[in-house]
Amino acid sequence: MPIFDTHAHYDSGGFNADRDAVLSALPAAGVGLVVDPGCDVESSRAAVSLAEKYAHVYAAVGLHPEDCGGCIDADFDAIRELCRHEKVVAIGEIGLDYYWAENPPKEFQQAVFRRQLEMAVELDLPVIVHDREAHGDSLAIVLEYPKVRGVFHCFSGSPEMAAELLKRGWYLGFDGPITYKNARRAPEVAAITPLERMVVETDAPYLTPVPFRGKRNDSRYLPYVIEKLAVWKGISPEEMTDITWKNGLRLFGLEGKA
Ligand code: NI
Q1: How close is the Cα of 203 to the center of ligand 1, in Å?
Q2: Which of 1, 14, 57, 126 could form a disulfide bond with 150, CB atoms 3.0-4.6 angstroms apart?
């Protein structure tokens, strides 16, 4: 089975020089599906345009915590409208990012996050959650919405937090950082995560796995993440590819469609 990259930002400026060349090359390189999550209204629209252009690309739409500063009702309305598009499979990426001091205030990020989780309930869509240095608040807020399911992208919380999410039907995303030498918690999290709740992501153009760390990331480097995860789970890379493909289809409601 081909690879499903459940999180790649091909709408990003990092692909301005060769976006079409990279996206066109993916199927022949073994990458069968990609979900491109937007980070604001403009990039969400761009993600939808790529999904319209490429059969193997689907979009998610949402307001990212780093990019939500100053967002107004019209932005939420635009995201809600984009959700009606047939190739939009999730609301994302949304969440909390307390890492950068210049990010919007925590209370504002939380309000934007909650509003999009409410939208996910209303529209019955899964969500793609970005949680950086905000584990306690991210978990507490998603638990306020027991009907919402989705994926914690590039999960970096504790095994205890992972267990709480897994118990409630969430998926966990594994990315390039699991190949880094200092990956400390990731093996512990992988150990307690059932195979059927794992998805693999590039977060391209960011988070490039070893041995290409420092270069621009794209979905063709995802086998390095798959290999690492397969070793940790004691299965072959081919099995991991197949399982994460099926998981991605289930997570985004694409079974029987893609
Ligand atoms: Ni991302």
Answers
A1: 5
A2: 126
Judge residue 253's burial from the number of C-beta atoms within 10 Å of its C-beta, 0-12 exposed, 13-18 middle, 19 or more buried: middle
- What distance in angstroms lies between residue 65's CA and the mean position of ligand 1's atoms? 11
Per-residue pLDDT tens over the stretch 150-184: 999 999 999 999 999 999 999 999 999 999 998 88
Report the predicted TM-score, pTM, of the whole model to 2 decimal places.
0.97
For ligand 1, the distance from its centroid to the CA atom of residue 39, given in whole angstroms, is: 8
Joined together, the tokens standing for residue 223 give 């086998």
The strand pairing partners of 129, in sequence order, are 94, 152
Task: List, for the chain, all residue ranges whose pLDDT scores fall below the cut of 70.
Answer: none
